[in-house]
Amino acid sequence: MKFFIDTAEIIEIKKYVEQGLCDGVTTNPTLIMKSGRNFEEVTKEILKIVPGPVSVEAISEDAKGMVKEAERFAGWGKNVVVKIPMTAEGLKAVRVLTKKGIKTNVTLVFSANQALLAAKAGATYVSPFIGRLDDQGEEGINLVAEILDIFENYGFKTEVIVASVRHARHVTDAALLGAHIATIPPNVMEKLYRHAKTDEGIDRFLSDWKKAKK
Ligand code: E4P
User: Fold this and answer.
1) Contact 164, 140 (CB under 8 A)
2) Ligand 1 proximity of 7 Cβ (cutoff 6 Å)
3) How far is ligand 1, taken at its centre, from the CA of residue 184, in Å?
4) Is the beta carbon of 65 within 6 A of some atom in ligand 1?
5) Is there a contact between 7 and 54 (Cβ–Cβ < 8 Å)?
6) Whether 2 is catalytic
7) Which residue of 11, 34, 129, 138 shows the fewest CB atoms closer than 10 Å?
8) Ligand 1 lined by 28 (C-beta under 6 Å)
């Protein structure tokens, strides 16, 4: 499973690139706002640092506007993926962009039918938001299972990015289902390699080593 980092924080991105754990990055208007940086400036910086795909979100509400934004973003780097919201206008834009060879990530997917429509439109990626489904009392991960089954039934090449990941178990569940990608926020990345028993074991070995005959 590929790991995308769900952030616009340069320090965090650099950390996971150095660890070899950053296969790509996803951003959105909220993450750009949180970074406190200028959208174009920070996006171009991320595109240079990251060896893989970087999702950059279009904010227009009509297909024409989305295509215009996408063409502008595509000029910023070969690894640009344009995030398009899951709407009728968004799907129109995806069709046009696919024909132009511009990669797309259909975002804010909350049902299997939405994912099916996005794949039919030619989306490179779809992003089911599992944490937000959990928030309203559903099992978000079930949506990922349905989408993967549907894509396999018809041989769609569209890859599934498990998004809105809130905790480490989401990552395990995504991997168990064979999802192509999970986009993971830095706070969850930290929890993937930490375990209280690992820390305790290291402390014990270090303290015993001090007492050992050398
Ligand atoms: C995905 O591309 C989104 O940026 C992100 O996963 C949204 O997550 P949230 O529900 O925690 O905002």
Assistant:
1) yes
2) no
3) 9
4) no
5) no
6) no
7) 11
8) yes
Residue whose CB lies within 8 A of the most ligand 1 atoms, among 3, 6, 189, for a mutation test: 6
Q: Which residues have a Cβ under 8 Å from the Cβ of 175 and sit 6 or more positions away?
A: 1, 182
Per-residue pLDDT of the chain (214 residues; tens, 9 = 90+): 999 999 999 999 999 999 999 999 999 999 999 999 999 999 999 999 999 999 999 999 999 999 999 999 999 999 999 999 999 999 999 999 999 999 999 999 999 999 999 999 999 999 999 999 999 999 999 999 999 999 999 999 999 999 999 999 999 999 999 999 999 999 999 999 989 999 999 999 999 999 999 8
Ligand 1 pocket test, candidate residues 180, 183, 184, most atoms within 8 A of CB: 183
What pLDDT was estimated at residue 19?
Answer: 95
Side chain identity, residue 40: E
Give the pairing of strands 24-26 and 2-6. parallel
Centroid of ligand 1 to alpha carbon of 44 (angstroms)? 20
In the chain, what are the domains?
Answer: 2-213 (3.20.20.70)
Q: Letter for the amino acid at 48?
A: K
Task: Specify the DSSP element, H or E, that contains 6.
Answer: strand 2-6
